[in-house]
Amino acid sequence: MGLITIHHSPLINNNTNGGNNVIGFWVHTDPQILSVLRSNYTSGLQIDLTDGSWISVPSDPSSFFFNVGDSLQVLTNGRFKSVKHRVLANSRVSMIYFAGPSLTQRISPPSFLMNNEEECLYKEFTWSEYKISAYNCRLSDNRLQPFERKAVNISLNDS
Ligand SMILES: O=C(O)CCC(=O)C(=O)O
Ligand SMILES: [Fe+2]
Q1: Where do the Fe2OG dioxygenase domain residues begin and end (predicted)?
Q2: Of 6, 61, 69, 148, which has fewest CB within 10 angstroms of its CB?
């Protein structure tokens, strides 16, 4: 299953916000498996480095940007991270294909990926269970948290 969206984050004068960045799309992780993004020549997409700083993704209209979603984080048992990101209001236009599972699909890592004794970080759930749970969360929440088996601390710097 998939979904295609087109985003336009209009340019908003920073002076109207006391010189602070104006956010076009608030911080979130993508819920699906993989997001494939193509943008115009305008930057604005930023990744949360979890230490309070943000790194900008350079715009390149001749490249695709792939982003790991929450479902792929679970499918790889945390090996691939679904990073928090946001978009600044900056005349940016992007088109994104979100590749997601079907509603009844169980999301859990395949056995061939698991090392001996490796424990699943997440309880098994279906994509529709995730979606129902996500409706009760805020956009910026860790929407995988209700499915964690125990407190997992996944940071960008984990090996
Ligand atoms: O507009 C962008 O570059 C990214 C938008 C986004 O993060 C999303 O739609 O999930
Ligand atoms: Fe996103």
Answers
A1: 6-101
A2: 6
